[in-house]
């Protein structure tokens, strides 16, 4: 990768976490091009947080994984994260694994709940499985942008003790136990607050689950070689076109209440192009205090106005001193 392809590393007023990542097409002519986009998205995501940053490389195609090739083992996962900017976490020596990884998750953090000094609060998080949502026990690797009522989730669901102190971990504990689409949307509708999510089940590392609940933005893009990407800001894809040699065929800012599963279904002896594997709509809920202009940190005015015009979440109000939440239209 050429240094000239990378935009300047900078941070403007931070307000929300940044999500980014990709599902790589096994038929792309040059895997380095998609890797360039991922690193560029990580640099741009610094505008949404510099408390910590990280990436997770997941899975491998047959013949490419394993220590003998320097790739990621099949169904494997390597997570690299730490305090500070993404540009401080990223190292060029990660490139061989990045070029081979079918799925990569990225995150930049602006801490809302949970101390930024605790390593367990940084993302991507590796969360053990739980059957709390009625499904099989399967761990997940996951990222979250937002701020939700974690106490409310813990009061409604029987969850194991947390390893950190963020509001993200209880969401992932629930999603780890989801066996099907209806279970996923059930968890997503139980969230109260801002949330955009990207997660992968450890036993299905070439499938990525993406969801935009209330407010927190999430954009999905497909390039001309059919690599699939996601990011918190649609502007980042326009910037990536200027700083890399990749062209995007589609860029879509998801509406609130959207769930997507994207990736490649596993078939013995066959590689498929990444595609949308499942979709669902759900009704998200925000608190009255969640409508904050920092949700659209880094957005152009046009992108922000377009997104605001399509908001469709319920609003929850607190009742007296009971702490109970009442949803109202």
From TrEMBL:
**PROSITE patterns noted in UniProt:** GATASE_TYPE_2
Q: Transmembrane region positions?
A: none
Q: Where is the Glutamine amidotransferase type-2 domain?
A: 17-265
InterPro entries recorded for this chain? Answer: GATase_2_dom, Ntn_hydrolases_N
Q: What is this protein called in UniProt?
A: Glutamine amidotransferase type-2 domain-containing protein
Q: Which organism is it from?
A: Actinomadura soli
């Amino acid at each position: 990768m050429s240094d000239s392809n990378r935009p300047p590393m900078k941070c403007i007023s931070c307000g929300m976490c940044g999500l980014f990542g990709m599902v790589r097409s096994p038929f792309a002519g040059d895997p380095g091009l998609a890797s360039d986009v991922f690193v560029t998205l990580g640099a741009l995501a610094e505008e949404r947080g510099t408390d910590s940053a990280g990436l997770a490389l997941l899975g491998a195609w047959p013949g490419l994984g394993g220590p003998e090739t320097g790739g990621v083992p099949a169904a494997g996962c390597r997570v690299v994260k730490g305090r500070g900017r993404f540009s401080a976490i990223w190292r060029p020596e990660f490139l061989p694994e990045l070029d081979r990884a079918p799925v990569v998750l990225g995150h930049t953090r602006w801490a809302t709940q949970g101390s930024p000094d605790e390593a367990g609060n940084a993302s991507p998080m590796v969360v053990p499985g739980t059957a709390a949502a009625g499904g099989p026990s399967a761990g997940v690797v996951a990222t979250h942008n937002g701020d939700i009522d974690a106490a409310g989730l813990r009061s409604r669901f029987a969850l194991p003790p947390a390893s950190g102190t963020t509001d993200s971990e209880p969401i992932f504990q629930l999603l780890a136990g989801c066996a099907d689409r209806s279970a996923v949307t059930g968890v997503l509708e139980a969230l109260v607050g801002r949330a955009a999510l990207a997660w992968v089940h450890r036993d299905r590392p070439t499938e990525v689950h993406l969801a935009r609940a209330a407010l927190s933005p999430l954009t999905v893009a497909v390039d001309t070689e059919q690599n699939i990407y996601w990011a918190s800001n649609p502007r980042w894809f326009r910037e990536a076109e200027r700083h890399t040699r990749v062209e995007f065929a589609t860029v879509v800012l998801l509406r609130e209440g959207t769930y997507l599963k994207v990736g490649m279904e596993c078939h013995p002896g066959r590689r498929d192009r990444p595609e949308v594997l499942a979709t669902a709509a759900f009704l998200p809920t925000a608190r009255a205090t969640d409508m904050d202009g920092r949700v659209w940190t880094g957005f152009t005015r046009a992108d922000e106005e377009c997104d605001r015009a399509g908001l469709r979440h319920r609003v929850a109000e607190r009742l007296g001193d009971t702490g109970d939440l009442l949803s109202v239209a």
